[in-house]
Amino acid sequence: MENSEKLTNSKEVIAYIAERFPKCFTIEGEAKPLKIGIFQDLAERLSDDPKVSKTQLRTALRQYTSSWRYLHGVKAGVSRVDLDGNECDVLEQEHVDHALKALEESKAKVRTRRKEQAIAKAAKEGDAKKTRAKTAKPKNIKPKTAKVNKKPVETTPVLKADEVIVGKNVQVNMGSGNMPATIVEINKDDVRVRLNNGLVMAVKAEHLRS
């Protein structure tokens, strides 16, 4: 049994009449100019068809004949066709001019709409960037500081007076630590020592450790 469910939109109606009358209507490529009064013929042929109403046919025909591919097909010297694809009268120049004008106006509207959409999109993206910039929280970047492992100062006993003799290996207190050295000379006020690196220096006896 054939499906008699009613069509719901012009796109479905156009596809349906193109299926019923393929020599007249097409859903792809350049369309053929239609016979004047084609609506009456179409309404009569489909009067008992539960799928479409006259109102749907009229709306679908209006959409079909205003499409770019139909307007492209309205050219000088081309003949109109009826529902069965038979050629009728040749297109008049005024109809050709009207189709050309309608095509240019339709394309101009599309260009304008696309331009407006592009401007609106750019403005929306600009507003979004500003909003993100305002709401973005600055990152608190703390500078990394190198950890210095301080060695504890060695607390060795102070060298006794009778231990201050030439040739004795001692530790020289440098404030931040002790350095190994050897006593090389003893004076009245200070003691001269030679560090392991060969440096000779004079220090107070109180800075010497055992």
UniProtKB/TrEMBL annotation:
Keywords: Chaperone, Cytoplasm, RNA-binding. Pfam families: ProQ, ProQ_C. The keyword Disulfide bond does not apply. This is RNA chaperone ProQ. Residues 119-138 are annotated as: Disordered. InterPro entries: ProQ, ProQ/FinO, ProQ/FinO_sf, ProQ_C. The lineage of its organism: Bacteria, Pseudomonadati, Pseudomonadota, Gammaproteobacteria, Vibrionales. Residues 5-119 form the ProQ/FinO domain. The gene is proQ. It comes from Photobacterium angustum. GO terms for molecular function: RNA strand annealing activity; RNA strand-exchange activity. It is found in: Cytoplasm. One of its GO terms (cellular component) is cytosol.
